Structures are given as structure tokens and as C-alpha cells.
Task: structure prediction
Amino acid sequence: MKNCDALVIGGSAGSLDVLLKVLPEIDLSINFPIIIVLHRKPGTDSLLTDLLKSRTKLTVKEVEEKESINDSTIYIAPSDYHLLIEKNHTFSLDNSEKVNYSRPAIDVVFQSAAEIYQEKLVCFLLSGSNDDGVMGLKVVKLSGGIAVIQNPKSAAVPYMPAQAELNVEIDEVLEINEMANYINQLSR
Amino acid sequence: MIKMQNGKKILIFDDNEELLELCTIILEDMGCQIHTSTTTNNVEQQVTEYGPDLIFMDNWLPDVSGVEATQQIKANIDLKHIPVIYFSANNNVEELASEAGADDFLAKPFDISAMENIVRKYA
Result:
């Protein structure tokens, strides 16, 4: 039985570089979806998706409203919407108020994913300059899921993973070059 | 990835730092050297100091507008030969590019291949 039904990766400033290094090393045989939520302003969505596509042969797509969530696919949260996961394993996009000054907010998607995937959820929190995602990681842990952070000591912007390390019982603290291997073994 | 534009120097003016980060990665993938600026203050001095082969100019910038900054570059005898690509999300980007005296335009949002094609054409 596989260990992971979904991997959610949240990040802010300094995270794009991490993704560009990790994505090419992810096995094409992964048997779960990867959902990526980055803080960003509107206007760069297609360019970001394009750029991530250029780094992997896995399917990379920006999430569409009511879309079914498929394994072996990398989903990018669009800017300016909160991303929610529904019980029937579809996405929904919500334009309610910003959370932690952010939309999409990492807390929102971590909490929503925790409710659906419970102990079969793995969440990564990467480099960033605010504490969005920390509360969400707490919920992930309470639901039995796994909380992973980028090592704050080597993150481009340490604050976000450092706050998680201070406030949440973290399962793994990873360097960039350890992440792909960690993700690949989740399929087994 | 084939590096087509080894060492070409590109200067990008835009106040959207996320766009600057993405454009930098895309153009570095092509083998270009990139310098970015979020201000058009002293635009002629900035262009002179970096000495780019190609300039991308956003329309809306908080200091001097993209149109005005491009006009300054094109009025400078030492800089006017440098191609300026005007980029904007405005519907009338082509009109703005023409008013500014830019060499070409790129409508936002654009995809990677559109940016690569324009760099291959001008740099």
C-alpha cells in the first residue's frame, strides 16, 4: 500500500528555485498528485506553469475549477484564488478574503488537504518570508499527516520554515538535494 | 536545453519582481546574461552602465513611464541602436510601443516561446 495519496508543496520568496531544482529529479512513476501553492501576484501564471513544465516530463497544469485530481500530475494553484480540495477529490477555487495577506494561502490548502487525505498526506513548506503554512502544518500533523520543511539554515529566505520548526512537530528537515529522493520513495 | 544566445546581455525594466524572477530564469536558460531594474529613474545612465544587447521595458513603472523611458533611450545617440521591446498587459500595447518608439512589443501574459522568439530575433 502506498504511503501517500497527495503531496502538497507550499512556498513563498525563494521557493521557485527549489522547485526548479527538485522537479527534474522526480520519477515519472510517482503514483500521487503534487499540488504546488506559491505566493505570487496575478499576471505571471502562464509563465510559471510554462517554466515548471520545462523542468519535468510529468504533466504540469494550472488548477481549474471543479477539476478532478489525478495521480502523477503536478497542479499549480492559480494566483488570486484560495485552493480547496473537495471530498470527491476535485479542486475548487475560492475568491474569499486573503488569509495571512495571501491568496492563495498555504494554510488554507494544507488544512483542506488534511481533511481529505488525513494520514496519507505529505506537506512540504519551503523558503518564504511570512508564516503562512505554519498553522496548516499543525492541522496536517493533528490529522496524522507528515510535515516536511526545507532546512531553514540553507533556505534562501528562512523565516517560513523556521517558524514551522519552532511551532510544529516536524517529521523531516530536508536540504534541496534530498527532496526528490524523499518524494520518490513516497510511491513505494 | 540548447543555449542559443551565449553571453547576450539583456536589461529588463519592470516593477513586478516575480515576473523579473521568471524572465531571468527563462533568459538564463537561453544562455543570456540578465540585469533587472524596478525603476526607470536615470534610465539612460542605467542602460549606459550595463550596456545591454536588448532591453525589455514595462509600460507601467512607478517613476518614469515606460513610454517616456523608451523615448529617452531612443533620443540618446549612444543608446538608440539598442532594441527595446515594450511589454504590457494593456490592450493597446502595440500603440504604446509605437508611441514610445520601441522596436517591437510583447503582450502580457506571454509564454516562454514568445519571449525566446523575440530574443532570438533582436539580441
The radius of gyration of chain A is 15 Å. The helical segments of chain A are 15-22, 45-53, 106-117, 134-142, 159-167, 176-185. The beta strands of chain A are 6-11, 34-38, 59-62, 73-76, 82-85, 91-94, 121-125, 146-150, 172-174. The first strand of chain A starts at residue 6 and ends at 11.
